[in-house]
Amino acid sequence: MPRPQAKRRARKAGWWVYLLRARDGSVYTGISTDVERRLTVHNAGRGSKSLRGRLPATLIYREKSKDRSAAQKREAEIKRWPRARKLALVRTKRKGG
How many domains does the chain have? Predict the structure, then answer.
């Protein structure tokens, strides 16, 4: 069970959906209240098992969500997309869209 401090921090910081590109070019989707910290955890080999053999990973996209539930729904939506659509999302965001 999360500590009360962590819950307060999550409410203050908000939730993010993020995409990482692994060394082999694969795209990983996740959520976090602190994307930079989460990337550090992934790259230390203590994050997702699916990334462990493909490190290092780099952050290619992130978007703010209104709460954890919204972040989880968006994460699930993006995970269903083919790789090409995920990369199109990244390109669109970089163009300011």
Answer: 1
